[in-house]
Amino acid sequence: MVDVLVIGGGNAALCAALMAREAGASVLLLEAAPRAWRGGNSSHTRNLRCMHDAPQDVLVEAYPEEEFWQDLLKVTAGKTDEHLARLVIRASSNCRDWMRSHGVHFQPSLSGALHTARTNAFFMGGGKALVNAYYRSAERLGVQIRYEAPVDRIELDGDRFVAAWIGQERIAARSCVLACGGFESDRGWLREAWGQNARGEWPADNFLIRGTRFNQGTLLREMLAHGADPIGDATQAHMVAIDARAPLYDGGICTRIDCVSLGVVVNREAQRFHDEGEDFWPKRYAIWGRLVAQQPGQIAHCVIDAKAIGRFMPPVFPGCKADTLPDLARQLGLDEATFMQTLDDYNRACRVGTFDHTRLDDCHTEGVAPAKTHWARPIDTPPFHGYTLRPGVTFTYLGLKTDDQAAVHFGGRPSDNLFVAGEMMAGNVLGQGYTAGVGMSIGTAFGRIAGTSAARSALAGRGQRQGAVHADA
Signal peptide span per the entry (predicted)? Predict the structure, then answer.
């Protein structure tokens, strides 16, 4: 029997496996994906949001705990567990040396990368390099790894983990860490969660999945059926406005459209529907998928002019390009008269002060709804560009309630040998909203906690069993 079973293959699962192995436990990690697709959504990441009180290696200036907390509080609108959130924040300040010890390398923030040089440490080679480094380290330390091993059932004795099942194969362990993501790749569950809107549409039918196709939520549904305490709202997610031409799965970061705050966004009726300049893009980019999901047909269009070019990370695929706004409207399939009325109203409303996209500047609108509160400049300089957007789901926030030991709870009581980490419990910290890099902060913090807790539980159980054997002898 293995000491610790880790179910999942992304950042949180790997952190748990490494910590448990370092603590002296035998560890088996089960990854549902084939080896080539290992790593879950972590393969698509770039960085980790980090608290620091002074400049540190790749991080400039300071990003203290209270500022990190206020950023999180703002994007979640208070829907967060402060104790667990601050645990994540503090853990983000001291995890990088441990990460380096397992082969992860960092690099400074790229120019134009969402103004994150102060707040986020970027992985050299991106999330795929991080995942590969962790797998190499795990193999070197003796962690057993199995690919194409989707667990479809958990065997419990009350609130205690007993075994996991892969089809007819039973795998027993002294403790277990669940780190196998949300349910965003289960199209039926998304449809069930979002339901039908007042227009008779099923919004989820038009969602694209930015991440792995293997996050089907199988064990999340299984644990909820076993009576595990839930956390979060099934419709809340890290949901980004992405290129409507993106693939159904695994489009990743390259499908994101990052010029929203530099232009205007209209729905298919050519109407604006939200403040594009509400706050810095890293704090607001993950609300736009949900905003688009609430529009007719779950589609929108971002429009910029030549003044915006060079001020944002360009998308992989070029959008529509035109020398006149009417021509752009035709290319986007929008009603020309309505589109021109919307743009004319916006342009007239712009009060241009000193434009500076690196701060909350004084360029704003007056007399138009919705307002644009920062970076508002007329769309008047050709060529004009338009990007068609769809909601892109990264991960869902419905998950399992936990505590500062990463234990799964049943009826308010923590299990003593079943733990949870990563996206499967992120809803404890993220009730809604998102800020860049915080998902990896949560996964790293709770992956390490879960691995430590699982090893402690397993080794204690092993000692008790050995003691019982000696007593019988």
Answer: none
